[in-house]
Design a protein that fits this description.
single chain, alpha+beta, seven-stranded mixed beta sheet, seven-stranded antiparallel beta sheet, 9 helices, 19 strands
C-alpha cells in the first residue's frame, strides 16, 4: 500500500490534470478507478479539492491568478513574496517600491527581499513612571524615618557602690549618677528617652521644646523639656525632686484606667508608690539639699536613725545595722559626708544614747 505522502502526491497530480483544461472522459475514468481503489485515495482527493476551491487560498497560491484559472507549471516554486524582487532591467530606479512581479518559475533572490518593518510595541511610560514614583516614595519614607528615629545615642551607664559620675549626653544634657545606679540612654532626632534601671540620677536637661526628655522608671514617666530634676528608685517606689523648671509625672494605667498626670514645678518632692502620688512643696533651697549627695553630703532634718542609716548604706559597703527598735526611732539632723560613716557613728555615740558594735563588715547600733 502506498504511503500517505505518495497518496497526497497522486491526488495532487490528478487535481492538477483535471483543472489544466486538457481533461477527457478517459482521464475521468482513470481518476474514478484510482478513487475506487482506496478510501484513503478518496479522502486525500476530496481534501485537496476543497482547499483548491477556496478562492482566497487559490489566489494566494497562484500569485494573483484569478479564481478558476490555473497557474502555469513551475509557478509553485516562486514564493508569494517574489513580487518584491528586484525590478526588471530598464525599470525606473526611483520606483523600486513598485517592484515588478518575478517571472514565473524564476527563483527569488534573497538580497532583493524587502521586509515590512515590525510594528513597535507601545511603550509603557505609565507603568515606568508609577514604578519610579513608588521607589521614590519608599526612599523618601526611609529617609524620613531615619532622620526622625535614627539613633543619635544609645548607651548604658552605671556606677558602683560609693561612686558618683557625671556623663554628657549627645543632646547637650548631663546625667549625674548616684552610688550603685544604672541608666539606659536612647536619643534620636525625634525623642529623648532615659530608663532608670537602678538607684538615682540627677538630670540637667538641655532645652529642646520639640524633643521632650523622658525618664522612665517602674511604670512611671517623668517628662521635661528643659529643667533640672532627680529621679530615684527604691523598690517599687519612686522619688522625684525638681530644682528648676517643671516636669510632668505620668503613671501607667491601672486595670485599664488612666492615671492622672501630675505637674511638678521647682521645689516639688514627689513620692510615687502603689497607693498614688504624694507631692510635698518646699523651697528650691530645701529641694537642692535633698539632692546634695552630688556634693558628697547627706542632709537629715529630724530624720529617724533607721532612715539615716539606710541612706548611708546606699554609699558604703560596710553597712549600718539598727540593733533595736528604740535605736531606730531616734531622731537625727545635720549634714554628713556619706563617704565617712565612721564619723557619723562616732557623733551618735557622743551626742545620743547609742552604743555601736563594730564588726568587720557592719556596725550595729544599739540604744543605751
Amino acid at each position: 500500500m502506498a504511503g500517505s505522502r505518495q497518496i497526497e502526491q497522486a491526488a495532487a497530480d490528478w487535481l492538477a490534470r483535471r483543472d489544466s483544461g486538457d481533461w477527457s472522459a478517459q482521464a475521468q475514468a482513470q481518476l474514478d478507478a484510482w478513487l475506487a481503489e482506496s478510501t484513503a485515495h478518496r479522502v486525500a482527493f476530496l481534501r485537496l479539492s476543497a482547499a483548491w476551491s477556496e478562492g482566497g487560498r487559490l489566489k494566494a497560491l497562484a500569485a494573483g491568478t484569478e479564481p478558476g484559472q490555473m497557474p502555469e507549471r513551475g509557478a509553485w516554486t516562486a514564493p508569494p513574496f517574489a513580487a518584491r524582487a528586484e525590478p526588471a532591467a530598464g525599470a525606473d530606479d526611483g520606483d523600486t517600491d513598485a517592484a515588478q512581479p518575478a517571472a514565473a518559475g524564476s527563483p527569488a533572490r534573497a538580497d532583493a527581499l524587502v521586509f515590512a518593518p515590525r510594528p513597535r510595541a507601545p511603550r509603557r511610560y505609565g507603568a515606568r513612571l508609577a514604578a519610579a514614583a513608588a521607589v521614590g516614595a519608599v526612599a523618601l519614607s526611609m529617609f524620613w524615618g531615619w532622620s526622625l528615629y535614627g539613633k543619635v545615642e544609645q548607651a548604658s551607664y552605671r556606677t558602683a557602690i560609693g561612686d558618683l559620675t557625671t556623663v554628657p549626653l549627645a543632646d547637650g544634657s548631663r546625667a549625674t549618677l548616684s552610688s550603685d545606679s544604672r541608666i539606659e540612654v536612647a536619643l534620636s532626632r525625634a525623642q529623648r528617652r532615659v530608663e532608670l534601671r537602678q538607684g538615682e540620677a540627677f538630670f540637667d536637661v538641655a532645652k529642646d521644646p520639640g524633643r521632650p526628655f523622658a525618664v522612665e522608671a517602674g511604670g512611671r514617666r517623668v517628662v521635661a523639656v528643659g529643667t533640672h530634676f532627680s529621679v530615684r528608685r527604691d523598690g517599687g517606689d519612686l522619688r522625684v525632686v525638681v530644682t528648676e523648671g517643671t516636669v510632668r509625672l505620668e503613671s501607667e494605667p491601672i486595670d485599664g484606667h488612666r492615671q492622672p498626670t501630675t505637674l511638678l514645678p521647682a521645689g516639688s518632692i514627689a513620692l510615687a508608690g502603689p497607693n498614688g502620688v504624694l507631692v510635698r512643696s518646699v523651697s528650691v533651697d530645701e529641694a537642692e539639699r535633698v539632692v546634695d549627695w552630688r556634693n558628697g553630703y547627706l542632709v537629715f532634718r529630724d530624720t529617724p536613725l533607721a532612715a539615716a542609716a539606710a541612706e548611708f548604706n546606699r554609699y558604703n559597703a560596710r553597712k549600718l545595722v539598727i540593733g533595736d527598735a528604740a535605736a531606730g526611732e531616734l531622731r537625727v539632723g545635720g549634714n554628713f559626708r556619706w563617704s565617712n560613716a565612721e564619723v557619723f557613728v562616732g557623733l551618735l555615740e557622743q551626742a545620743m544614747p547609742v552604743r555601736a558594735e563594730r564588726l568587720h563588715d557592719r556596725i550595729v547600733l544599739h540604744s543605751r
